[in-house]
Automatic annotation (TrEMBL):
<dbReference type="InterPro" id="IPR041694">
    <property type="entry name" value="ADH_N_2"/>
</dbReference>
<dbReference type="Pfam" id="PF16884">
    <property type="entry name" value="ADH_N_2"/>
</dbReference>
<dbReference type="InterPro" id="IPR045010">
    <property type="entry name" value="MDR_fam"/>
</dbReference>
<feature type="domain" description="Enoyl reductase (ER)">
    <location>
        <begin position="49"/>
        <end position="367"/>
    </location>
</feature>
<dbReference type="InterPro" id="IPR036291">
    <property type="entry name" value="NAD(P)-bd_dom_sf"/>
</dbReference>
<dbReference type="InterPro" id="IPR011032">
    <property type="entry name" value="GroES-like_sf"/>
</dbReference>
<dbReference type="Pfam" id="PF00107">
    <property type="entry name" value="ADH_zinc_N"/>
</dbReference>
<keyword id="KW-0560">Oxidoreductase</keyword>
<dbReference type="InterPro" id="IPR013149">
    <property type="entry name" value="ADH-like_C"/>
</dbReference>
<dbReference type="GO" id="GO:0016628">
    <property type="term" value="F:oxidoreductase activity, acting on the CH-CH group of donors, NAD or NADP as acceptor"/>
</dbReference>
<protein>
    <submittedName>
        <fullName>NADP-dependent oxidoreductase</fullName>
    </submittedName>
</protein>
<dbReference type="InterPro" id="IPR020843">
    <property type="entry name" value="ER"/>
</dbReference>
Amino acid sequence: MSVIHSTLAAKPVQVLVGSRDQVVTPATMRTAMQNSRHVVLARQPQGQPVPADFAVQARTLPDLPAGRVRVEVLYATANPGSRNRLSGQASYARGMALGETMEGPAVGRIVQSRNPDFQAGELVSGPFGWAEHVQVSGRGLRRVPADTPSVSAWAGILSIPGLTGYFGLRDTGAAKAGETVLISSAAGPVGATAGQIARLMGCRVIGIASGAQKLRWLREVAGFDAVVDRAGAATADDLAARIAAAAPDGVDLYFDNVGGPLLDAAIANLRLKGRIVISGQISDYNTAPEQRYGTRRVDSFISKRLRMEGLVVFDFADRFDEATTAMTGWIRDGRLKFKEHIVDGLEALPALFCAQMRGEIFGRALARLAS
Ligand SMILES: NC(=O)c1ccc[n+]([C@@H]2O[C@H](COP(=O)([O-])OP(=O)(O)OC[C@H]3O[C@@H](n4cnc5c(N)ncnc54)[C@H](OP(=O)(O)O)[C@@H]3O)[C@@H](O)[C@H]2O)c1
C-alpha cells in the first residue's frame, strides 16, 4: 500500500467531427462493447466485514444507449457509511442487494458520450461505485475542472467526505468564530475537513483520533489547536477526562463521526446550550441495531439545554459547487490539507474497506483503477 498525491489531468481525445455518438479515445479505441470488472456484494457481512463478503465479476457493457455516457473509473473509494447498507439496512439510502455493484463516490474519465451535455475526455465525479467502467446518465455527474489541483480529491475532499465536513460544520453545526469545536475521527477526510474549516472560521479546534502519527499530522499539518488520543481509554469517563484536559472551558460544538462512549464523553464536556452534529456513528456500524451503544447521557440534554441534529450531505446538493469552489481555493493557497491512502487495482478494494472498518486507514481510502 502506498500514499501518493495525484496530479492527473484530462487526456485529450480525438472526436469524430459530425458524429457525437462515435468517439475514439487514444487509449483503447473503445467501440460498442466494453468489458468491465465490478466488485459486487457476495453475502451480507456478519459483524466486521471480510474480503470474502465481496466478489469480482466480469461483465460486458452493452452498446451505449442515447442520453448516457461511458466512464472509465480512475479512482474508486471505500466508505464507512456503506456498512449499514451491506446488511440490507436502509438509512437515508436503501440497503444493497446481493450481486449489486458496491457503491461509493468516484472520479473518472468519459470515454464515450451520447449525452449532448458531456464530451469524451472530460473528467467527472459521481457515484460510480467499485467498477472499472460504468454507463450513466448525466444526472448527479459533476464536471472536474481541467485545472483542478488534484483529480483524486474529486473522489475525496472535493466530493462526499469534504462536502460533509463543509456543510456539517457551517450549516448544520452553525459554527461561529470564537467557539470551541470538538471533532471525532478528526484525521479522517470528513473530520479533517471540518476541523480545518472551523479553524478558518476562527474557532478553537480540538481533534480526537488514535495513534501518534494521526495526532502529529493534526497538529503539525492540519493546524488543529489541540488533540485527544482516544486509544487505550477504557470508558466514557476516561475519554471525558482526556477531552476536559484539552478543553478546560468546555466545548460549544461537537462534530460526531463515531458515536458510542465517545459521544457520551463529548456530552459531558459540552457547555450550556452546546450543539452536536451527528455525521456518523462508525463505532456502531458493525453492531446489530439492538446492541448499539447509543447515548446514556440524555439527562444532560435537559440540564445543559443541548441540541443534537443529524446530517445528510445530499440535503445540500444544490450548493455542492459553492463548497467545491471554496475548498479548491483553500487547497490552492495551502489552507486546506488532505491525506490520501491509495492502493492499486479494483481487487484491492474489499481489503481496503475491511481495513477501514477496523480503523486501520489514515486518510481518504482510494483505489487507483486507471490513469
Ligand atoms: N452524514 C453524512 O451525510 C455522511 C457522509 C459521509 C460520511 N459520513 C460519516 O462520516 C464519518 C467519517 O467518514 P470518513 O469517510 O471521514 O471516514 P474515517 O473518519 O476515516 O473513518 C474511519 C476512522 O474512524 C475512526 N474510528 C473511531 N472509532 C472507530 C471504531 N470503533 N471502529 C472503526 N473506526 C473507528 C478511526 O479513526 P481514529 O482511530 O483516529 O479515531 C478510523 O480510522 C463516518 O461515520 C461516515 O459514515 C456521513
